[in-house]
Amino acid sequence: MTVESTAARKPRRSSGTKRAAGAASARKTAAATAQPHDAEPQLVQLLTPEGERVDAGDHPDVAEFAPFVADITTEDLRGLYRDMVLTRRFDGEATALQRQGELGLWASLLGQEAAQIGSGRALRDDDYVFPTYREHGVAWCRGVDPTNLLGMFRGVNHGGWDPNTNNFHLYTIVIGSQTLHATGYAMGVAKDGADSAVIAYFGDGASSQGDVMEAFNFSAVYNSPVVFFCQNNQWAISEPTERQMRVPLYQRAQGFGFPGIRVDGNDVLACLAVTRWALERARRGEGPTLVEAFTYRMGAHTTSDDPTKYRRDEETAAWESKDPILRLKAHLLASGGADEAFFAELEAESETLGKHVREVVRSMPDPDTMAIFENVYADGHALVDEERAQFAAYLASFEGGE
Amino acid sequence: MAIEKMSIAKALNESLRKAMETDPKVLIMGEDVGKLGGVFRITDGLQKDFGEERVIDTPLAESGIVGTAIGLALRGYRPVVEIQFDGFVFPAYDQIVTQLAKMHARSLGTIKLPVVIRIPYAGGIGAVEHHSESPETLFAHVPGLKVVSPSNASDAYWMLQQAILSDDPVIFFEPKRRYWDKGEVDVDAIPGELHKARVTRSGTDLTLAAYGPMVKVCMEAAAAAAEEGKSVEVVDLRSMSPVDFDGLQASVERTRRLVVVHEAPVFLGVGAEIAARITERCFYHLEAPVLRVGGFHAPYPPARLEDEYLPGLDRVLDAVDRSLAY
Ligand SMILES: Cc1ncc(C[n+]2csc(CCOP(=O)(O)OP(=O)(O)O)c2C)c(N)n1
Questions:
Q1: How many Cβ contacts (< 8 angstroms) between chains A and B?
Q2: What is the layout of strands, in order, in the sheet containing B78-82?
Q3: Looking at residue A264, what is its pLDDT?
Q4: Residues 267 to 326 of B: which have CB under 8 A from any A CB?
Q5: Is the Cβ atom of A136 under 6 angstroms away from ligand 1?
Q6: Residues from chain A contacting residue B90 (CB–CB below 8 Å)
Q7: What is the mean pLDDT of residues A53-68?
Q8: pLDDT per position as a tens digit, A249-278
Q9: Does the structure show a pLDDT above 90 at B302?
Q10: What is chain B's mean pLDDT, rounded?
């Protein structure tokens, strides 16, 4: 029995959990010494790293969440597996394309597939998603064409999709901003009397931003139907979570007056269950929830980053054994939920996806120069018109002349 | 004289090291400035040598970074804050504009806030959005702040130390696409004044005024113009607040023509202020209206369009021709 499966018997929720944040009396300002982040985190888990289902009968808290995935059939499990594998393949392809100079930058989700697919598949079509820049798996669940995600990383646009087609907002790079947009959108949903919900994604680093705390407070005050889904991947570029907070993240919700819960972010079933639970609360009018998906960024922060400057190999290795995809594969194999033919077929599908992504990206045209002046205003603007005309004349002077 | 050849990035790193050695009250604060040495490695190795008490990795919160830097300055420290990229200074803009810039005046001059805010800025590195902006005007417009930008290694080395020595808050814009440009630094020199403009190439027909990343473009433009028999002077303004109008006026009185170049949008930009002042000061010397070359009234475009958006050699030379045609 592993640390995680034992821990699964004691899921932690901020409401009702009273634990000291760790005494911080030492007169040290820069070097924090306390370790608020449990070396053995306690989190909701329904599938162990070995791929064993955690028995719902074992613990009341597990029993509380297990019903939220009681309807999940073996076929559904294969579907979740497929989602994770294809997302990882897409992500790996994008990383390779960056290395080949086809993309300027890529923010990989490697290791975070379960958190994204589990939460993404919990959503209804009429729910609305506010992502950061790393939510490729959630985008996949929303039906956004994955190649559309690459435009901004290639440098041909700043977005690349209409958010309202799939209720999936544009990627947000400024850390934390989107949590307020999600909250406002949720306020609107409530005003409209709709029963859909809103979900905002952000990282552990983002939890330090004032915007995020303001979003927590607004959503609590207005009892807005929003789920804050934090993927705690342990790092904000080079800074570990100890540099962002002294209290486990999920506990923060309590101070704002709504529940927070920590889930095993590498367990797709648990992520699905907990997100469904939180969404249902929102739909019932019970307000916001904070979900902390405890996971790990297996790669670099982005392709510009060099994690060897700040991260130990042992840490990465330890997390590799918790790989979300291997976990579900082990379960599918052990339970007879999938056979080798299924995996082979999926491998072929991955190949096709990879090839498609490569082809689309390589043939993605550069935007027209005059696109600089497009869509600056909805109603037009005299100064933009003037500058556009001047620049067009300037460019034309080359074509005509030399 | 100890002349060393180094990149702008290295010069900034050496400058910080020197300032920290000289004054134990100097602190470095920001996201990823510690072990990583900053995303551009400007603070590389400093935490190792000066410890976590002086090179402080902060939570990911710009308002928090600047707000606490103000508090540390009130307590007698001299914080040098790193904002990771231009587009991320705005969460801190409130603290900078409403607090940092005004406390000296509000305290009737009793409070001094020697805070330096370093911001890698401007475009040309193929980045995604919020990583290529030139917001200098937004700071130069605020009374109480000083705003500077070096264009070469020597200035990077000296201006940063001078900014740290200043008792006023200084917004220190670093031209990120020039970080890897090398130049000579005389580490024993007596540096010129922080806010003085410098003539970096003499000429007689026209003055090109620029700062930061555009100085190099203007130097190249002047060289290209020389091949066509035009004698172009280049002035590196170095400081956007205050602007050395006396130095610039002296140049314009010699050449009688002025073109101001910056990456930031032209509308209400630093160039607009310079055009107005120089027109006032040099009205009877000018042979042509002061022209401006810069960014458009449009968001900084996606990377694949930045070469068209950024003023390059051709756009500068076009303005030189237009000015000379008057
Ligand atoms: C306001 C702001 N400050 C700084 C940055 C630069 N930056 C980009 S990602 C990042 C770390 C984000 O960490 P986290 O929130 O944990 O999300 P992760 O990338 O790990 O998923 C930083 C500092 C930014 N994008 N926005």
A1: 131
A2: B55-57, B26-30, B78-82, B116-121, B170-175, B146-148, B239-241
A3: 97
A4: 267, 296-299, 301-306, 308-309, 314-315, 318
A5: no
A6: 174
A7: 82
A8: 999 999 999 999 999 999 999 999 999 999
A9: yes
A10: 98
Exposure of B231 by Cβ count < 10 A (0-12 exposed, 13-18 middle, 19+ buried)? middle
- Are A186 and A268 spatial neighbours (Cβ–Cβ below 8 Å)? no
Chain position carrying tokens 């009234």: B297
CA–CA gap between residue B321 and residue B319 (Å, rounded) = 5
Distance of CA B167 to the CA centre of its chain: 18
Segment A278-301, tens digit of pLDDT: 999 999 999 999 999 999 999 999
The answer to whether the CB of B169 falls within 8 A of the CB of B114 is: yes
Shortest distance, CA B322 to any CA of chain A (angstroms): 12
pLDDT of the residue at A399: 78
A205 lines ligand 1 (CB under 6 A): yes
Residue nearest to atom 20 of ligand 1 (CA): A236
- List, in sequence order, every residue forming a beta bridge with B121; answer none if it has no partner: B175
Give the ipTM. 0.95
Question: pLDDT (tens digit, 9 = 90+) per residue, B76-114?
Answer: 999 999 999 999 999 999 999 999 999 999 999 999 999
Helix (H) or strand (E) holding A289: strand A289-294
Instruction: Note whether A373 contacts B296, CB cutoff 8 Å.
Output: yes
Chain B residues with beta carbon closer than 8 angstroms to that of A385? none
Smallest CA separation from ligand 1 atom 17, residue: A203
Q: Which two structure tokens, joined as six digits, stand for B122?
A: 């401007």
Ligand 1 in contact with A198 (CB < 6 A)? no
- Provide the pLDDT for residue A42: 82
Task: Give the atom of ligand 1 at the shortest distance from the alpha carbon of A297.
Answer: 20
Residue matched to tokens 């590799």: A320
| pTM as predicted | 0.94
pLDDT at A12 over 90: no
Reply yes or no on whether B285 is catalytic. Answer: no
First to last CA, chain B: 46
Task: Give me A68's structure tokens.
Answer: 């939220």
- Nearest Cα to B140, choosing from B264, B260, B249, B258? B264
Comparing CA positions, the residue from A176, A123, A168, A172 lying closest to residue A146 is A168
Laid out side by side, the sheet with A289-294 consists of A128-130, A198-203, A226-232, A289-294, A260-264
Structure tokens at B153: 């290694």
- Stronger pLDDT, A13 or A279, i.e. the higher one: A279
For residue B1, the model assigns a pLDDT of: 72
**Closest alpha carbon within chain B to A207:** B60
In whole numbers, what is the pLDDT of chain A averaged over residues? 90
- Yes or no: say if B179 and B8 are a contact pair by the CB < 8 Å rule: yes
A236 CA from centroid of ligand 1 (Å): 6
